[in-house]
Amino acid sequence: MVLDHLPSAHAPLFSAAETARAHAWAPYSHFPVGAALETDDGRIFAGCNVENASYPAGTCAERVALGTAIATGARQFVRLVITSQQQDPTPPCGICRQALVEFAPALEIFAVAPDGRAARWSLAELLPAPFTPASLENV
Ligand SMILES: [Zn+2]
Questions:
Q1: At what angle do helices 11-21 and 61-71 cross, to 10 degrees?
Q2: Rounded to whole angstroms, what are the CA distances from 2 to 5, 16, 114?
Q3: How many angstroms does the Cα of residue 92 sit away from the middle of ligand 1?
Q4: For residue 64, how far is the Cα from the chain centroid?
Q5: Cα 134 to ligand 1 centre (Å)
Q6: pLDDT under 70 in the chain at which residues?
Q7: How far is the CA of 17 from the centre of ligand 1 (A)?
Protein backbone atom coordinates (compact mmCIF):
# COMPACT_ATOMS: atom_id res chain seq x y z
CA MET A 1 0.00 0.00 0.00
CA VAL A 2 1.42 3.40 -0.97
CA LEU A 3 1.15 6.09 1.67
CA ASP A 4 1.59 9.84 1.37
CA HIS A 5 4.48 9.59 3.80
CA LEU A 6 6.01 7.47 6.53
CA PRO A 7 4.06 7.78 9.81
CA SER A 8 5.93 10.32 11.96
CA ALA A 9 6.26 7.83 14.81
CA HIS A 10 8.78 5.98 12.65
CA ALA A 11 11.01 9.00 11.98
CA PRO A 12 13.85 7.57 14.11
CA LEU A 13 13.90 4.46 11.92
CA PHE A 14 13.97 6.59 8.78
CA SER A 15 16.81 8.66 10.18
CA ALA A 16 18.83 5.57 11.09
CA ALA A 17 18.24 4.07 7.64
CA GLU A 18 19.28 7.28 5.91
CA THR A 19 22.43 7.57 8.03
CA ALA A 20 23.36 4.00 7.10
CA ARG A 21 22.51 4.58 3.43
CA ALA A 22 25.04 7.42 3.37
CA HIS A 23 27.69 4.79 4.14
CA ALA A 24 26.54 2.23 1.58
CA TRP A 25 29.23 0.58 -0.49
CA ALA A 26 27.51 0.37 -3.86
CA PRO A 27 30.10 1.16 -6.55
CA TYR A 28 28.70 -1.48 -8.92
CA SER A 29 24.94 -1.05 -8.77
CA HIS A 30 24.99 2.66 -7.85
CA PHE A 31 21.95 1.71 -5.80
CA PRO A 32 22.69 2.71 -2.20
CA VAL A 33 20.16 1.35 0.27
CA GLY A 34 19.64 1.94 3.97
CA ALA A 35 17.61 -0.20 6.33
CA ALA A 36 16.66 0.08 9.98
CA LEU A 37 15.10 -2.67 12.06
CA GLU A 38 13.17 -1.98 15.26
CA THR A 39 13.08 -4.57 18.01
CA ASP A 40 10.05 -5.31 20.15
CA ASP A 41 11.66 -3.31 22.95
CA GLY A 42 12.31 -0.27 20.75
CA ARG A 43 15.95 -0.67 19.84
CA ILE A 44 17.02 0.26 16.32
CA PHE A 45 19.66 -1.48 14.23
CA ALA A 46 20.68 -0.07 10.87
CA GLY A 47 22.49 -1.42 7.84
CA CYS A 48 23.53 -0.47 4.34
CA ASN A 49 24.27 -2.57 1.31
CA VAL A 50 27.87 -3.76 1.06
CA GLU A 51 28.74 -4.74 -2.50
CA ASN A 52 31.81 -6.58 -3.66
CA ALA A 53 33.83 -6.91 -6.88
CA SER A 54 32.82 -10.57 -6.66
CA TYR A 55 29.15 -9.67 -7.02
CA PRO A 56 27.58 -12.60 -5.12
CA ALA A 57 29.68 -11.70 -2.09
CA GLY A 58 27.68 -8.51 -1.67
CA THR A 59 25.03 -8.16 1.02
CA CYS A 60 21.81 -6.16 1.17
CA ALA A 61 21.15 -3.42 3.70
CA GLU A 62 18.34 -5.39 5.30
CA ARG A 63 20.55 -8.39 6.05
CA VAL A 64 23.35 -6.18 7.36
CA ALA A 65 20.85 -4.61 9.79
CA LEU A 66 19.53 -8.04 10.75
CA GLY A 67 23.01 -9.45 11.33
CA THR A 68 24.02 -6.47 13.43
CA ALA A 69 20.92 -6.89 15.56
CA ILE A 70 21.37 -10.63 15.95
CA ALA A 71 24.98 -10.10 17.01
CA THR A 72 23.77 -8.06 20.00
CA GLY A 73 21.34 -10.77 21.05
CA ALA A 74 18.19 -9.18 19.61
CA ARG A 75 15.71 -11.74 18.30
CA GLN A 76 12.28 -10.07 18.13
CA PHE A 77 11.57 -7.44 15.47
CA VAL A 78 8.45 -5.45 14.78
CA ARG A 79 9.30 -3.02 12.01
CA LEU A 80 11.71 -2.36 9.13
CA VAL A 81 12.24 0.88 7.21
CA ILE A 82 14.09 0.83 3.88
CA THR A 83 15.35 3.91 2.06
CA SER A 84 16.82 4.27 -1.41
CA GLN A 85 17.14 6.81 -4.18
CA GLN A 86 14.76 4.97 -6.48
CA GLN A 87 11.75 6.90 -7.69
CA ASP A 88 9.37 4.39 -6.12
CA PRO A 89 9.59 2.84 -2.64
CA THR A 90 11.76 -0.29 -2.89
CA PRO A 91 10.63 -3.51 -1.22
CA PRO A 92 13.18 -6.00 0.17
CA CYS A 93 14.53 -8.61 -2.25
CA GLY A 94 13.54 -12.24 -1.99
CA ILE A 95 16.64 -13.33 -0.09
CA CYS A 96 16.07 -10.64 2.52
CA ARG A 97 12.42 -11.62 2.87
CA GLN A 98 13.56 -15.15 3.60
CA ALA A 99 16.21 -13.97 6.09
CA LEU A 100 13.70 -11.77 7.91
CA VAL A 101 10.93 -14.37 8.19
CA GLU A 102 13.23 -16.53 10.32
CA PHE A 103 12.88 -13.98 13.15
CA ALA A 104 9.89 -11.81 12.34
CA PRO A 105 7.09 -13.42 10.34
CA ALA A 106 4.76 -10.59 11.38
CA LEU A 107 7.22 -7.81 10.48
CA GLU A 108 5.78 -4.50 9.29
CA ILE A 109 7.83 -3.11 6.41
CA PHE A 110 7.98 0.44 5.12
CA ALA A 111 9.96 1.65 2.11
CA VAL A 112 10.49 5.36 1.56
CA ALA A 113 11.26 7.10 -1.74
CA PRO A 114 13.31 10.34 -1.94
CA ASP A 115 10.16 12.45 -2.34
CA GLY A 116 8.88 11.07 0.95
CA ARG A 117 6.25 8.75 -0.45
CA ALA A 118 6.20 5.50 1.45
CA ALA A 119 4.85 2.03 0.90
CA ARG A 120 3.77 -0.37 3.61
CA TRP A 121 3.61 -4.14 3.50
CA SER A 122 3.53 -6.97 5.99
CA LEU A 123 6.25 -9.56 5.51
CA ALA A 124 3.50 -12.18 5.22
CA GLU A 125 2.13 -10.22 2.30
CA LEU A 126 5.53 -10.12 0.56
CA LEU A 127 6.43 -13.73 1.37
CA PRO A 128 3.36 -15.97 1.36
CA ALA A 129 3.85 -19.64 2.25
CA PRO A 130 7.29 -19.01 3.79
CA PHE A 131 9.94 -21.61 4.54
CA THR A 132 10.45 -21.30 8.31
CA PRO A 133 12.08 -23.25 11.15
CA ALA A 134 8.78 -25.14 11.38
CA SER A 135 9.39 -26.36 7.84
CA LEU A 136 12.32 -28.40 9.18
CA GLU A 137 10.31 -30.16 11.88
CA ASN A 138 9.92 -33.90 11.52
CA VAL A 139 12.96 -34.18 9.27
ZN1 LIG B 1 17.99 -8.07 -0.16
A1: 110
A2: 8, 21, 14
A3: 5
A4: 9
A5: 23
A6: none
A7: 14
Mean pLDDT score of the chain: 96
Residue numbers of the domain that contains 95: 2-136
In this prediction, residue 113 carries a pLDDT of 96
> Domain with 70 in it: what CATH number?
3.40.140.10
Q: At 129, which amino acid appears?
A: A
pLDDT in tens, 70-91: 999 999 999 999 999 999 999 9
Catalytic residue among 18, 38, 62, 137: 62
Which letter does DSSP use for residue 22 in this model?
Answer: T
DSSP string for 62-76: HHHHHHHHHHTT---
Residue 125 is a catalytic residue: no
Q: Is the pTM of this model over 0.90?
A: yes
Angle, vertex CA 136, rays to CA 131 and CA 139, nearest 5: 145
> What CA–CA distances, in Å, run from 95 to 6, 85, 127?
24, 21, 10
